[in-house]
Inverse folding.
């Protein structure tokens, strides 16, 4: 099972807002991935991957992404 959250579950357990037993069951291997706004270099890789998958799924031929669109994605704050 894989579980993901943008909350600090350990803090929530201390505050009594998340079940301690559940936390320790799902906290076997912790992978921390910084938010996209902290790893903007991943945006082109992600965009190309999504485009390739959607093109295959829809049966359309897509050669890439417009540089302006990619620049807009890089400028976005991703709150």
């Amino acid at each position: 099972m894989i579980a993901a959250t943008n909350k600090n579950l350990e803090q929530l357990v201390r505050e009594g807002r998340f079940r301690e037993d559940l936390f320790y069951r799902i906290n076997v291997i912790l992978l921390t991935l910084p938010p996209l706004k902290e790893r903007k270099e991943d945006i082109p890789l992600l965009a190309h991957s999504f485009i390739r998958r959607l093109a295959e799924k829809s049966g359309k031929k897509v050669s890439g992404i417009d540089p302006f669109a990619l620049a807009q994605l890089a400028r976005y704050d991703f709150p």
